[in-house]
Amino acid sequence: MGFLYGNHVTKVGLGRITENTTQNQGVVIFSMADVPLGFGVAAKSTQDCRKLDPGGIVAYHQSDVGEYLRNEEEIG
Prior knowledge:
This protein is an alpha+beta fold. Helix content is about 20%, strand content about 30%. It has 3 helices and 4 strands; from the N terminus they run βββαβαα. It is elongated, with a radius of gyration of 13 Å.
């Protein structure tokens, strides 16, 4: 499942990563069309991501634009 469904970003879902990203750094998750999708925390550094297996977590989910739709009844 994708980031917009509340899941973490795995290496399989990673298109690009900023150079010199450190572990536990706050990150903004973008689509391949450069549309911001949400916020997260880097699970691994840029260097560690290169060595990671395809199913490994790259960024932990914190919040995304789909969250409003999933919780619309509770919010409104």
